[in-house]
Amino acid sequence: MKDISLDAYKWLHELEPYTWVRAFQSDLPNCDILLNNNCEVFNKYILDARELPILSMLERIKGQLMQRHYSKQLEAEKMKGNICPKIKKKVEKLTEWENLCYVDGAGDGVFQVGDRGVNFLVDWHTNECSCKRWQKGGTPCVHAIACARHERVDPLSLVNQCYSVNMFKMAYKNIIYPCRDMAEWEKMNGPPVLPPLYTKQVGRPCKSRRKARGEVICSNGGKKMSRHGVIMH
């Protein structure tokens, strides 16, 4: 990286390793998402509500979340098995690759797994593999799945409980209660809170998000990070 971009090297060198190096990050989240897509999705989710006054905006967002919770409750009732469907498909996909691994048992839930010339250590007691994918993502890696097949154990039993159907139901079991109409709200003894004075700015209102430092727009419409040289669509 230093040879490619000295500025990028200096910038990363000033940051703490856990902010950008996966190896230094905690295993507690059990999530393998490395992108900022969740924030982008939420930003689009509330795009219409952001144009409203503060109370109307909060009411719109609350209504959207209330509908989402209800739809997830209905979705959870239709789930079969102990593991959520998407995670189940992910494990089944990895199962197709476990035949490339060779398992040697060491005893007491510890295994050595050979994968295309590289050896990995798998420990069932701590749910860890030396490839780090199991403890980082919460789902068994291909080496752990190979050990499960070797011991004739269902690979889905190695999935972290945070991906279970029961935990999914618990996440959406609470109800976001609807509110009465604003006209029926209780009047409080105090001065009314008025909106701030609004002065119309010259030109069209800006609705586009602020571009990050170093981000430029390509001629073909894609976004290019000048530091990395990777075009994103």
TrEMBL record:
Record InterPro entries: Znf_PMZ, Znf_SWIM
Domain named SWIM-type: residues: 120-152
Keywords: Metal-binding, Zinc, Zinc-finger
Coiled coil: none
GO MF annotation: an example: zinc ion binding
SMART domains reported for this sequence: ZnF_PMZ
Protein's name in the database: SWIM-type domain-containing protein
